[in-house]
Amino acid sequence: MDRQPKGLTLLELLVTMAILGVTLGLGVPAFRQMTLAVRAHGAFHELTTSLAMARTVSLVRGVPVVVCPSHDGVTCRPDRIWDQGWITFTARDSKLLRAAPGGRGLAIRSNRQRLRFQPDGFSKGSNLTLYVHAASDGPLIGTIKVSQAGRIRSERTPMATISSNSP
């Protein structure tokens, strides 16, 4: 009767743990980088969609439309912090068109408190720039800019640059 031992030897267990440690050591940073890229892509998409929809509604309906940061999905914030979301509404009757969720754990700041598209699609005042950061003190992921003519464009920082600057 030949007995086969059941279980692992100490050496097999140590080798398995070493392989697991190396795999996790390489995989966790890559996973963190991938989740940051997905969150950033989602925030850029939500912001540009909200801005484009606001401009389109202002042109089609011939009414001023406002986009501003909001913490409750109903009222505008008094500051320039877009982290907790933003709202889009018509300026004349304050009819809410869209309440967007927050920036998915990203820090989003702007140079203006709100953006108002006129009935001709132009943005009154200075250009709006939204700055998207990985965290409140994290590296810049990119910017979204709206010109006075209502043109929306986004610029993203290469993810390799972001990961090398991340803590």
Structure description:
Helix content is 35%, strand content 24%. It is α+β, with helices and mostly antiparallel strands. The chain has a single domain (14-159), classed as minor pseudopilin epsh fold. A hairpin with a 6-residue loop joins strand 6 (128-133) and strand 7. The radius of gyration is 24 Å and the shape is elongated.
Structural class: alpha+beta
CATH topology, by name, is: minor pseudopilin epsh fold
Figure out the total of helices: 2
Mean pLDDT: 87
Named CATH architecture: 3-Layer(bab) Sandwich
Overall shape: elongated
Give a short account of the largest sheet: 4 strands, antiparallel
The radius of gyration over CA amounts to 24 Å
Query: Which residues form runs of ≥5 with pLDDT under 50?
Result: none
Strand order of the largest sheet: 3-2-1-5
CATH superfamily: minor pseudopilin epsh domain
CATH class: Alpha Beta
Q: Work out the helicity level.
A: 25-40%
Instruction: Please report the total strand number as a whole number.
Output: 8
Number of domains: 1
Order of helices and strands: HEEEEEEEEH
Instruction: Assess the beta-strand content as a share of residues.
Output: 15-25%
